[in-house]
Amino acid sequence: MSREKEPQKSDLTIRHSREQATQVAPQTWSERIDTALQTDQFVLHMQPILDLRRDQTAGYEGLLRMVDVDGSLIPPGAFLREAERTGRMQLIDRWVVHRAIKILADQKRRGSRFRLSVNLSGRAFTDAELLPHIIGALNSERIDPTGLILEITETEAIPDLDEAKRFMQELRGVGFQFAIDDFGAGFSSISYLKHLPVDYVKIDGSFIRNLAHDPVDQELTRALVEVARVLGKQTVAEFVGDAQTIGILKAYGVDFAQGYFIGPPGPLV
Q1: What is the number of structural domains in the chain?
Q2: If you average pLDDT over residues 196-210, what whole number do you get?
């Protein structure tokens, strides 16, 4: 969930944190996750999402980071595996959704409104406390639930599709929306799209990185867009890195785009 959206490795702070991750004992990471949850040392950095039809920012994706003791940022790849292994992933899911709702509420008070997407792990659907947690936060903050899009990572296993479907239908009933992230990267794409009530399909960046120069990626992307269109889903292309790719995506009828060419993740100003 909330994993990196770009292949770039130029961020020295993040690279240094990744190198440190291999030197930290698993128990130490567990303690650091607990501390981050208890002392609010997680943050969501915002990456803009471009509406390709209107050529304007349609919203943001909130990407999870842990704040290290020296103030540097630790990317999710350094700690999420340990969170999953030790059963802390559901606690992180709750934190992410609660923080997203708080951000939308703060923006509403400032007179600003936008859509915000955040990732949920596959374990979210087995968390009996998550649904009432979300509804409670929604009622407390009084945001417009259509402003929050919950992303399901296609490459991450969902233990019970029927349970996930019930969870999603209940939240969609009050206005939340859902997206499949990394669409096309694994073997569950069509099954998830067929069985789960999602509104958006986020095409995996592996098809988009070299789209301007790779005929195979072009055909595969065109096919994924067509499948989504037939099923009435809106499409988002990830890892967009240049203007030529933007032109191709517009020609294919892709609805939204996200990537470093459009804007890197950063604090919400």
Answers
A1: 1
A2: 95
